[in-house]
Amino acid sequence: MSDSDSHINRRSYLKLAGSAAAAASLAGCTSGGGEEETTTTESGGEETDMEETTTTESGGETMGDFEVTITQGQMPSGLDPQDHRETPTDIVVLHAYEGLLTRDATGAVQTALATNYERVDGENSVEFELREGVTFHNGDELTAEDAAYSINRVVDPEVSFASPQSDQLAGVAGAEASGEGVVTVTNSSLNPIVFSEFATYLDVMQQSWVEERSKAEVGQEMNGTGPFQLESYTEDEEVVLTRYEDYWQEPAEVSTLTFRAAAEASTRVNQLLAGETDVVVNVPPQEVQRVNNNEGTRVAAAPSTRIIYNAMRYDVEPFDSVEFRQAMNYAIDLESIVQNILGGFGATTNQPTLPEFVGHDDSLEDYPYDPEEAERLVEESGYAGAEIELNTPVGRYLKDLEIAQAVAGYIDELPNVSATVRERDFGSLVDELLAGSIEARPHWFLIGWGEATFDGGLVMAALLASEGTLTTWQDEQFDSYLEDAGNQTGDERDATLQEANAYAHDQAPWIYLNQQFSVYGVNDAIEWEARSDERIDVYDMSQK
């Protein structure tokens, strides 16, 4: 979105959003539905389009001051890049830590700490060749041993701890330094999306630095290779990063980067308009005009890869009944929620996989709003008179509380079900979701999931497979679909994932809600465009 497109009405935005989503789909789902190109690629660190600023002096000396403050809905849960599953944390740590591969703003795979990558040994293994001259923030050089350790720290719980990110590298069995600057990654099978995974996940850490510290210390300090290094961290209050002058690319134009949080959207918007912050997340629809009409601020928006849904635990009453779960979907007017609560800044869903993703089944239709059918199915389920409580975060997602209140309100209107809302701190809710077992999770909750690989298989593996990181469902038939897809490529894999989506639609483990659009408020003094993967990449920011 160019500067001239920043001040747009909703109708124009929705047209732009559709085009951007299609572009992101093409960029992220190449080679026949997820089977990736294996051609070796090289990079001299020239992928970024940011021009050298006039304040940069010869010899790489310090650039001028350019301070930026970002206000999210939540603070990071910690600073360990491999010990979290939340986007607010990811947005912060990705400024200090980097991966072997990355993605550009369109979703296309790009080299990062690795310059070359290819399949080897019958294609069940892959090799990465590391970039030379990369240093961690403590001055030590990046080695192949560091990269291999970082991979193993995620996929092997015996290396350091049980990382909640292990499924993000699904199919990766381990890694080793196989030569100077060369890392060999072993897959448990073909792993058709291995490069897509590494382009989205896996932040590289220094082995000796991690091993010299306790788990708590790793979560309070930072030592990456990224364009920003940690200046100070006040838990639940503020993270301050400063420009890393010895970055392997040109130093960032931004000199000081501060992250803060405000759960209430109105608070964030007021801070932006008052000049107290420069970028705010999740601007609600009713505030868009106020931001655009204010002198010195604008709205930047993009369709995201995030699905918002209500999970229902299959192992507890009344959600152990397929009929009851289906009834919950019939009970809500999803189109009204998207139009009236989100102001059209969203799209309805009917399956775990978004339209832009590999595996989406275009033939599936939304559950219609049919309170009478919902009432009938509740009776059929045997759970008439059920009382249910919806756990929801506040301020984490666009209009999350309002969506939860609407869902519970529609269901409570049924004569044979009572529904209420319980507001939850996002951090405490996530702790329950990551507790490691279905039994530790709330019976019914609102949550969002962003999958920047554009792959429906990874979404379903994490959220619905029996061993999934956040699963609330166990079903042998569904698991068999995902197992089959894990050994397939191209159109065959896409077709199997479509079957899995159709099965999940019918079994209704979720109340299917909306695709979230990312809507930001931005200081006009900053040159920056919103991305579909929700990343706020400050390295790409410049002063107007």
How far do the termini sit from each other? Answer: 15 Å
**DSSP strand tally:** 19
Average pLDDT rating: 88
Characterize the largest beta sheet: strand count, sense, and whether it forms a barrel: 9 strands, mixed
Rg over C-alpha atoms, rounded to the nearest angstrom = 23 Å
Query: What is the percentage of strand-forming residues?
Result: 15-25%
Oligomer: single chain
Structural class: alpha+beta
| Total of DSSP H or I helical runs spanning 4+ residues | 17
What percent of the residues sit in helical stretches (DSSP H or I)?
25-40%
Overall form? globular
Low-pLDDT residue intervals, each spanning 5 or more residues: 1-61
Features:
disordered N terminus; 544 residues; 22% strand; globular; single chain; 29% helix; 4-stranded antiparallel β-sheet
Quick overview:
The protein has 544 residues and is an alpha+beta fold. It is 29% helix and 22% strand.
Please give a structural write-up.
The chain contains 17 helices and 19 strands. It has helices at residues 10-28, 30-34, 87-93, 144-155, 194-200, 207-211, 215-218, 265-273, 288-293, 322-331, 334-341, 371-381, 400-412, 426-433, 456-463, 476-485, 490-507; strands spanning 67-72, 101-103, 109-111, 114-120, 125-130, 172-179, 182-187, 228-234, 238-243, 256-261, 279-280, 297-312, 346-348, 386-393, 417-424, 444-450, 510-523, 526-527, 542-543. Helix 10 (322-331) runs antiparallel to helix 12 (371-381) and helix 16 (476-485) runs antiparallel to helix 17 (490-507). The longest helix has 19 residues, at 10-28. The radius of gyration is 23 Å and the shape is globular.
